[in-house]
Amino acid sequence: MAGVAALTIQGANDRVNVAFIGVGRMGAANIGYAAKVPGFRIAAVCDVCHFREILADPSIDAVCISTPDHWRAHMTVEACKAGKDVYVETPAFVHVEEGVEMVEAARKYKRVVQAGTVARSGAPVQKAREMVRSGALGEVRFCRAFEAATTDGGVQLMDIVQFAFDEAMPVSITAQGSAPGTMLATFRYPGFVASYERRPGGAYGTAFHGTKATLMVNRAAGAHVAHWKNFLECIRTRAKPISEIETCVRSTATCVLANIAMRRGVTLDWDEKAWKLEV
């Protein structure tokens, strides 16, 4: 859409005015999800060329960023500076240092930044996390994430793993691939190992292999609307959302580093202290 389309919608005065930047497949989908959440007013939509008009509008409370990947980090930082709360799609950035800047902006400007790692809002994934943490599966020593295709580089699936383990990040990463769209990455975490597979055909999911049992989970229908409900609640209460930007930065960085390891043909050792994040 060339330019900004402002929508005049009658509603309660306490509704949150949200603008949508980027209205391709996910942008259009997010408009539909937000429309199902009473309390949001869909105030405007625009393309990437006009996002600064949105940020300059004092009537806009929050923005949803569903642009191509390379725009997302910059727009998130600029939206925080402009005093807007943010919903940003995954992958949230292209370069790891951009993720650090996103977290720093959210903290500095005291903004609610919800990322599009929606599986966290689904009941099956929340139940899986509970079972892993309770010891119902025994000691979980291996996790496997797998899918036939990806639009976010595996972020959604690896986020499920890290959600279950208190946002743990790997300490070393190796990866290899052959044909386009094929990848096998191995992540060594403190206490367990995880793999990510992308290959033609087949199902997708995340499996937790414990000493007592194995559990496999995938995202469930309805998680997107629940995710937007959580975003609205946190805008109003100023609490951290379930996919607060730092959690998404961790999951996205894990996948970005796997791509680097594959391209370079090396094992990457990762020191989380290098992030220098204030949490």
Can you give a write-up of this model?
- Strand 5 (85-88), helix 4 and strand 6 (113-115) form a beta-alpha-beta unit.
- Helix 3 (69-81) runs parallel beside helix 4, helix 4 (96-108) runs antiparallel to helix 8 and helix 6 (155-164) packs across helix 8.
- Helices cover 35% and strands 24% of the residues.
- It is an alpha/beta fold.
- The model is unreliable at 8-12 (pLDDT under 50).
- It folds into two domains: 4-116 and 223-244, NAD(P)-binding Rossmann-like Domain (Rossmann fold, 3-Layer(aba) Sandwich), CATH 3.40.50; 119-219 and 254-275, Dihydrodipicolinate Reductase, domain 2 (2-Layer Sandwich), CATH 3.30.360.
List segments where confidence is low: pLDDT < 50 over at least 5 consecutive residues: 8-12
Determine the mean pLDDT.
Answer: 91
Q: How large, in whole angstroms, is the Cα Rg?
A: 19 Å
What overall geometry do the principal axes of the alpha carbons give? globular
Fraction of residues in helix: 25-40%
The third-level CATH topology of the largest domain is Rossmann fold
Overall tally of structural domains: 2
Tell me the β content: 15-25%
What series of H and E elements makes up the topology? EEHEHEHEHEHEHEEEEEHHE
Looking across the biggest beta sheet, what order are the strands in?
Answer: 12-11-7-10-9-8-13
Number of strands: 13
Structural class: alpha/beta
CATH architecture of the largest domain: 3-Layer(aba) Sandwich
Return the CATH class of the largest domain. Alpha Beta
Task: Report the span from N to C terminus.
Answer: 38 Å
Give the count of helical stretches.
Answer: 8
Q: The biggest beta sheet, please? A: 7 strands, mixed
**CATH level-4 homologous superfamily of the largest domain:** NAD(P)-binding Rossmann-like Domain
- Looking at the chains present, what oligomeric state does this protein adopt? single chain
